[in-house]
Amino acid sequence: MPQLEFIDLEFYILSDDIAREPIDPPNVKQISLPNLTGICFQGDSSHLEGLAAQITAPHITLFGATFLDQPSSTLPHLSGLLTTAAGLRLPIARIKFPSTYVDGPNVVISMTSSERALERRPHSPPFKIVFPSRSLYAQVASTVKICAALTPMLSAVRRLHLCFDGTRWSPHDRPIENARWHDLLRPFRKVEILRVDAKLWELSLALSPNDNGPSMEILPQLRKILRPGGGRFGDEFDGFIAARRDAGQHIVKGWRLPILYPYSEASEREEGEA
After folding, report:
1. Which of 62, 65, 114, 223 is deepest in the core (most CB within 10 A)?
2. Quick one: which of 132, 145, 140, 149 has its CA closest to 63?
3. Alpha carbons 74 and 149: distance in angstroms, whole number
4. pLDDT at 115 over 90
5. Position 19 pLDDT exceeds 80
6. Alpha-carbon distance 198 to 93, whole Å?
7. What is the C-alpha R_g of the chain?
8. Residue 273: pLDDT band by 50, 70, 90 thresholds?
9. Is the pLDDT at 4 greater than 90, yes or no?
10. pTM across the whole model
11. Is the pLDDT score of 145 beyond 90?
12. For residues 70, 153, 108 and 234, what is the CA-based torsion angle, rounded to 10 degrees?
């Protein structure tokens, strides 16, 4: 067992008995797996928690988990397992929220080593967690839970992409509280560049400097906010940028054009540039 290099587990059925199974069964010794470099998992998050509670594997460089439902706990054991994996402390993170109008909407949290890798190989990053969820409110709530568990890893992220895939409109959408957006961003303390999809317009309101505005612990090192695809912001984020400027943190807005050819580089421009 100590020579194990890769774990691939797949469960296709959710069981009502999962919640009654002990995550920390008595008299079970934790197994050290010094040669383990990859985990690929599909199933309920409680099954993955049970595995994470019983192993240590500091050399993981590849991790993928597809949950059959939204996480059923705060994932403390998964947090402990991944915190020791220095190879998963990656500088680029993307959170993709799906439209409720697509079949099988899945939230995707991914991390990789470079922008180029993220754009050219979006489906095979070295770190990925996928889970199904219908409403944007529930998507953000579950993502907050996962990101809180991943806080030690997310402290290495320098660029964060917040994406929305598909059509965004529903009269039944539950409003997302400002504090929930703050909780989502809280683990990303070293992010310098934030890319925000235009369909996630609530984020600008959540960061506005009002009674419920963010404290300085939210994005304390941010210096640039980008709109993907060449889109413009208008006056979005102006209040947030002005408040941070008054506090000594200089932030600019801009846009980022996509990579069009295999060996070309993406172009980033600040607003006001030709």
Report:
1. 65
2. 149
3. 7
4. no
5. no
6. 18
7. 20
8. very low
9. yes
10. 0.88
11. yes
12. 120
pLDDT at 89 over 80: yes
- pLDDT at 215 (0 to 100): 84
User: What one-letter code names the amino acid at 229?
Assistant: G
For residue 63, give the nearest of 82, 44, 46, 35 by alpha carbon: 82
Q: Token pair of 117, please? A: 């890798």
Contact 225, 240 (CB under 8 A): no
Kindly state the tokens that stand for 225: 């906010």
Q: Tokens standing for 229?
A: 């695809």
Structure tokens at 29: 């010794």
- Conformation bin of residue 99: beta by default, left when phi > 0, alpha when psi is -120 to 50: beta
Report DSSP letters for the chain, one per residue. Answer: -TT--EEEEE-----TTGGGS-SS-TT-PPEE-TT--EEEEEE-HHHHHHHHTTEE-TT--EEEEEESSS-SS--HHHHHHHHT-GGG--SEEEEEEEPTTSSS-EEEEEEES-HHHHHH-TT--SEEEEEE-SSHHHHHHHHHHHHHHTHHHHTT--EEEEEEES----TTPPPPPHHHHHHHHTT-TT--EEEE-TT-THHHHHTSSSTTPPPTTSSTT--EEEEETT---TTTTHHHHHHHHHTT---EEEEEEPP-STT---EEEETT--
Nearest to residue 159, comparing CAs of 218, 118, 217? 118
Please name the residue that has the structure tokens 């697509």.
Answer: 102
Contact 237, 218 (CB under 8 A): no
Instruction: Reply yes or no on whether the pLDDT at 214 is more than 70.
Output: yes
Tokens of 82: 């991944």
State the pLDDT at residue 170: 62
Residues in a beta bridge with 92 = 112, 159
